[in-house]
Amino acid sequence: MPPTATDRFRTLAAALGVEVAVSEFPEGTRTAADAAAAVGCHVDAIVKSLVFMADDRPVLALTSGGNRVDESRLAEAVGATVVRKASADEARAATGYAIGGTPPFAHTGEGVDHVLIDPALLAHAQVWAAAGTPSSVFPISPSRLASAAGARTADVTTSVQTSTATGHARSGRMSVTVLMIRRDDADAPVDVAVETLEDSALPDGAVTIDVTHSSINYKDALVLAGRPGLVREHPHVPGIDLAGTVRACDDAAFAPGDEVLVTGCWLGERHWGGMTTRARVPSAWVVARPSGMDAHRAMALGTAGFTAQLSVDALVHGGVRPGDGPVLVTGATGGVGSIAVMLLARAGHEVEAATGSSGDPEVETLLTALGAARTVTREDVSGAAGRALAAARWAGVIDVAGGATLAGALAQTRPGGVVAACGLADDTTLATTVMPFIIRGVTLTGIDSVLHPVELRPAVWERLHGAVDADLLARVTTTIALAEVPARATQLLERGVRGRTVIDTHA
């Protein structure tokens, strides 16, 4: 009996070093919804392997089942003038498989010019893809999938799920209080107000959470100011963090009453966020809170604390140890910076805290209390930005600023040092030379808190919870109500906020 398409796929995948566990469903899994129902996962965890012709050359888009490809965005991503869906014959010629059963890699056809993976897939611990026929699928981690397919991340999709105030009807007519952003068109100013909606207006998601607390981060402030490139559809609820209690869950991942949090994963950007009294989100985004972490503490830490912990982890992974020399933290009075100072000091590092308020006795006292050995001015760091190398000062750096601050920090990092770049408070550009890297062996590592692998998040939260002193965190935390958020966001953009701001969504 000749080998089936699934047999061929399994053999070719093994040759790539990928052992696949294929499940067969005789009734077929031609659509993403069919596949999700068959394997018992959310439709967003289904990989659609879609072939398009870009200027008559085949490209493959690996797309979340809940999204559809925007052909104009795909054209921009691959530098094409015209993009269209491939015909059945063109798709088979490129991949060797029929539409509906196309796997994301191990193709037998002529090949494709580009393979792009939807960032939404990276938010899941496990995804499911076709294994050569419409009736066969296999599970794989998103990172392994991207590697095997040789895919690069590119956001070329739009959601096919309702995410506006005309959402899917649901049972009951419970009200939800939200901070709503409305905008008539891309050039119009945003209107921000506290509104009450029926919970049927909430976007789709397997987990419904009664939200008690959220927080304000720099990205939230940009969204609330209407800065372009962050939110695609209005009306919109901001908030990249939330904490609360599970009200309902459509799968077995969580149970009512579970104490949870969500950060990143496009919350508050492409999906309604945490500045609400209730939210619905995919279960893959949800993390059970560590024992002893209440919702207020979870949001006092929030994305800022999560990012700070990832940055400290990067220094440790790069070999920076206490006693190697001072470690610099830029933006040290901000959310990420203040928590990074605490974490580094707790670990035994000599911390130098850079701030635009250096010399202010109140700031000096605060940073000393958090664990800083000394403060330096912002200009002490950025002043070296125009030089290939300057005096070697720091064994490690956690930078939230980007721009000249990051360039200056690189020029002053010691041989073998590690610089963790985790923000853009000053600038998105980086004007530097290769000299820190090829003369001093400096490592520059980026910190992605939005799409950090889901399966690794609980351990990060456990480390963070155990390392941050409750009294010190309380010292840099302010709590406000939803109605106070717009004014606070403006202060944050004007560098008028120190530490963390928690939102009590019921206040």
Can you put this structure into words, describing what you see?
- With 507 residues, this protein is of the alpha/beta class.
- It has 3 domains: 5-159, Alpha-Beta Complex (YbaK protein); 175-289 and 484-504, Quinone Oxidoreductase, Chain A, domain 1 (Alpha-Beta Complex), CATH 3.90.180; 302-446, 3-Layer(aba) Sandwich (Rossmann fold).
- Helix content is 27%, strand content 25%.
- The chain contains 15 helices and 25 strands.
- The strands form 6 sheets. Strands 13, 14, 15, 16, 17, 24 and 25 form a 7-stranded mixed sheet that branches. The protein has a 6-stranded parallel sheet with strand order 20-19-18-21-22-23, sandwiched between helices.
- Strand 24, helix 15 and strand 25 form a beta-alpha-beta unit.
- The model is unreliable at 161-172 (pLDDT under 50).
Short description:
By secondary structure, this protein is of the alpha/beta class. 27% of the residues lie in helices and 25% in strands.
Number of strands: 25
Radius of gyration: 24 Å
Number of domains: 3
User: What characteristic shape results from the CA principal axes?
Assistant: globular
